[in-house]
Amino acid sequence: MGSVDHLDRCISNYRMKNRTKKWTVRVILHMIDFAVSSAWIAYRHKMEAAGALKKDIFDYFHFRLNVATTLIYGVKQSQQRIATISSSDESIEDSQPPAKRRIPACMPHDSARKKDVRHMPEMVGDRIHRSKCRMPKCNALTTVRCSNCKVFLCFNGSRNCFKQFHEK
């Protein structure tokens, strides 16, 4: 019973405070608090057993803060992990790097979009590398991109978003 009281004491210091009438949300938040405080106790015991200095062990607040920032931003390759202890049974290494996502190009300013004559359509890749047309109210997938703006636009017989985009 002593460890449950210890967990309740840890949770009471930095409880997630959300005013809600839904009992399910309160239970989920309590379980998250319970898991984080239990993980902190296990982390602290492992670090003490490894002989780490007291100043190198995170206190509960900084541990929660580190868990939250890791959940929000993810773990960077250069960032040192919280658990510095590794044994032959446990492996903390990442199995594979996250998949890269293509970030759409920013829309050019209206004056640059309409003024220059350097806007030429270019074919990019094949059907696998298609992207959504950036013209408002057009949801077509296209492989044509403006060489100057780097914006994907439709350019075919039925619609010419490329021309409309650079004239309007």
UniProtKB/TrEMBL annotation:
Keywords carried by this UniProt record: Membrane, Transmembrane, Transmembrane helix
Highest rank taxon of the organism: Eukaryota
Transmembrane regions listed in the UniProt entry: 23-43
Protein's name in the database: PiggyBac transposable element-derived protein domain-containing protein
Source organism: Araneus ventricosus
